[in-house]
Design goal:
single chain, about 300 residues, alpha/beta, Rossmann fold, 2 domains, 11 strands, disordered N terminus
Length: about 300
């Protein structure tokens, strides 16, 4: 165990009656992840009225935190909730100073006009904090990628890369197809990551969220996005995780979320994403991004 620091955290989870259930664990860690911190995952099936699979993750050097009802809104039916417990030092990276605004380009993985993930994307633009400006990066006009295009990118491919270059972060709002991501989204990622040495995602913060009628709410597809973005050298917002089960009427066509707990959760998700972007650019100042693509 030479050189390994044992981190012990203690958190308090709320059971159905509101009573606190103490959970503690320790785990060896060679490196501390400043962006994630300890968190408790609450996969919940409200249909059966059960809370299960409480899982404590580690990786932060600060002491215990406590989840309260104010911090953790009630879980909506089918919503898998992963509440990030960050220390007060990370609650507001710019506490007492100017809060930085960022632009976020979002991808809707589905091309369907009536896509429920498009409804989710509209809801996220409404619920995002004022410091986040969201705008869609369209992917429907892209031809299938081939490296034959690398020497002379078509206008659609160049427009995609320019759109990504113009924003500070990207957000993937995607369904899950066959336990993976839609082909249109993968095609867009391939276009953006090429030609070799001109990867548009390098050092650009990213996040993924999705909704589906199924109980696991795009969880497997999101893991594929995380794997791809790791290869593309994009810092990924890994906690809070958001797997949304879409039920009829959950989100209206104009992006109104009709379930209070889901609306509160999505608001918190976007607020935490803003904090993550801030921390990424504290570590990787935007002045250094000009050489990021070449460096990878």
């Amino acid at each position: 165990m030479d050189g390994i620091v044992v981190v012990e955290s203690r958190v308090r989870a709320l059971d159905r009656s509101g009573a606190g259930v103490a959970v503690s664990a320790s785990a060896p860690s060679r490196h501390f992840n400043q962006d994630v911190g300890p968190h408790v995952r609450f996969p919940t099936s409200a249909r059966h009225g059960e809370e299960r699979d409480h899982q404590l993750d580690h990786g932060h050097h600060e002491p215990a935190a406590v989840v309260t009802r104010q911090q953790r809104p009630p879980v909506a039916p089918g919503l898998l909730f992963a509440a990030s417990l960050v220390s007060s030092r990370h609650d507001s990276p710019f506490k007492g100073t100017h809060v930085t605004a960022f632009s976020v380009g979002y991808f809707v993985g589905s091309l369907a006009k009536a896509s429920i993930n498009r409804k989710l994307s509209v809801a996220l633009t409404r619920l995002a904090p004022p410091q986040l400006e969201l705008r869609e990066i369209p992917i429907g006009e892209l031809p299938l990628y081939s490296y034959d295009y690398d020497k002379d990118y078509p206008p659609a491919g160049r427009a995609l890369k320019d759109a990504i270059a113009s924003v500070d972060a990207v957000l993937f709002v995607t369904p899950e197809y066959n336990r993976s991501i839609p082909g249109a989204l993968k095609n867009a990622i391939d276009w953006a990551s090429r030609p070799w040495g001109e990867n548009s995602f390098a050092r650009k913060p990213s996040a993924v969220i999705g909704t589906s009628p199924g109980l696991i709410g795009t969880a497997v597809g999101q893991q594929h996005v995380r794997s791809i973005m790791a290869f593309c050298n994009s810092p990924m917002f890994n906690a809070i995780e958001a797997y949304i089960q879409f039920t009829p009427g959950l989100i209206t066509d104009d992006g109104e979320v009709t379930v209070d707990s889901t609306r509160e959760f999505l608001t918190m998700y976007m607020t935490e994403f803003h904090g993550f972007i801030s921390r990424v650019y504290m570590a990787l100042p935007r002045a250094s991004r000009a050489t990021a693509a070449v460096a990878t």
